[in-house]
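Researcher: Go.
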Amino acid sequence: MSSAAWSSHRARVAALADALAASSGPVRLRKRTSNLFRPREGAERTELDVTSLNHVLEIDVEGGAAEVEGMTTYADLVDATLPHALAPAIVPELRSITVGGATTGIGIESAAFRYGLVHDTVHEIDVLVADGRVLTCAPDRHAELFHGFPNSYGSLGYATRVRVGLIPVTPYVRLEHTRYDDPDALFAAIDAECAQPDCAYLDGVYFAPDDYVLTRAHFVESLPAGTQPSDYTWLRQYWRSLRERREDFLTIHDYLWRWDTDWFWCSSNVGAQFTPVRLLLGRKRLSSVTYQKIMRASHRWPLKLLQHIRSRTESVIQDVDIPIANAAAFLADFEAGVGIRPVWICPFVVPNQHFPLFRLHTDTAYVNFGFWDMVPSKAPDGHYNALVESLVAKHGGKKSLYSRSTYDEASFWREYDRDAYVALKRECDPDGRFPGLYEKTVQRG
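Model: Structure:
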């Protein structure tokens, strides 16, 4: 432990707390990047600058945990843990996602079939609440806020420090890509892995109704003689390899960021599937951060052609969680009603039901389906996003709130435990200085 690092951390947090306590009226965070896909409108709010809270404070090798500030990106955290042969138990798929964001939101990745969602792997959180207090929260300390923080999206307070669980890792992983033409067989294989894990990481992709790939990744200390790890950080695309190879090897670093280079497959929206474009961009610019900047800039371009094109499409950027018994039926309904392809498939388990704002059942595995694209539409704006919400409800699932939501207020609170939220809001933010959860995630506050 570096006493200087902790002393600097306390000074940064104290300055932020003082700024919050000294201000009045509504507030929100100021930060350089965001992985939210909904615009911010709503009332004018004082912005709190949290950009300096981005430090890795300590790697507790013996305790299997990392102490980090809330705005620390997973890219920086992974760089700090891998030299110790450790990694966060769940490393969300994009480098720019922050630890605090994944904790207050709903973070997932391919180890979730073993460990659950990001918040299931967090040991402790320091939360800055509306009156400037910093509350240390854990399962046995301020437990209501600890369990209510996930899925609150900054509406109860902001994470200034997070203690994140780590797992041992090896230098390399071996990938096995198995193709399926039957969804029932695919989800049966996933269910078996969730019940009795054999591999280290597990996820898949839906390419078409008769074309699925399930990827099992295994830790390996070294590569077979004469084998070099694959490189999908520049000219080759990882997602294309899933149907081209039965076996592959990656460094653990490149495995953790395998989806970031092409933002899964969404880089094709800016032409980055073509080699000349990849050569022009260069290796460093091939990342989710670049694509997000391009996407956000496109909404500001005053070109009538783009506005005309956009008026005939609807952006459907969603992640939904469906009980595994209903996964095949959900996917069939989604194909018929929305039709976006490919779709990411990421299974996960639910270690406990203590998180009231994202309460799921512990007696079943779930499947996260991620789909992100523009859908041609002549329907009223919001039609397809509302359809996704109705399909999620039909199949007994939950929808993440990082992107567009169309719920009316009564429907929203049937999904996200209004009583628990109101009690926490009364304790942490009685004057409503932070946007409310419905205001922020549906009304764009």
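Model: The chain is about 30% helix and 25% strand.
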